[in-house]
Amino acid sequence: MSSLNPFLEKPVIVITTDGRTFVGTLQGYDQSTNIILTDTQERIITPDEPTEIIDLGLYLLRGDSIVVCGLVDEEINNSIDWTKVRGNRIDTTRHAT
Questions:
Q1: What does the pLDDT look like over 10-40, one tens digit per residue?
Q2: What are phi and psi of 19, to 5 degrees?
Q3: Which is it for the CA torsion 54, 58, 60, 61, positive or negative?
Q4: Confidence of residue 95 (pLDDT cuts 50, 70, 90)
Q5: Helices (H) and strands (E) in the chain, counts
Q6: Do 67 and 17 contact (CB within 8 A), yes or no?
Q7: Domain Sm spans what residues (predicted)?
């Protein structure tokens, strides 16, 4: 749990068990790894359409729905034209065999 301390007040990317991708600034977390993000955006990447970016603002993610939370390299992130990114959706990790 304390491994999230270095990420506080920094941009992070979070992938959830249902394959959703969120980017925001980590403001806090608790013992269940519930996390609070500000300036949050959800990125919806599909193979046939431009990436859809939904501004969510302040957002709370339940710890039991988080697969991974990592730091965003802002230089790389800002150099990507997300409207041109295409790709397959990440499948769910729930009940994976």
A1: 999 999 999 999 999 999 999 999 999 999 9
A2: 85, 10
A3: positive
A4: low
A5: 1, 5
A6: yes
A7: 1-75
Q: Map tokens 């939904």 to a residue.
A: 54
The answer to whether the pTM exceeds 0.70 is yes
What's the pLDDT score for residue 88? 85
Q: In the chain, which residue ranges form alpha helices assigned H by DSSP?
A: 74-79
* Domain limits, the chain: 5-82
Residue 41 has a CB neighbour count (10 Å cut-off) of 16
Fold for the domain defined by 5-82: SH3 type barrels. (2.30.30)
Phi/psi of residue 34, each to 5°? -65, 135
Q: Output the six-digit token pair for 92.
A: 């769910």
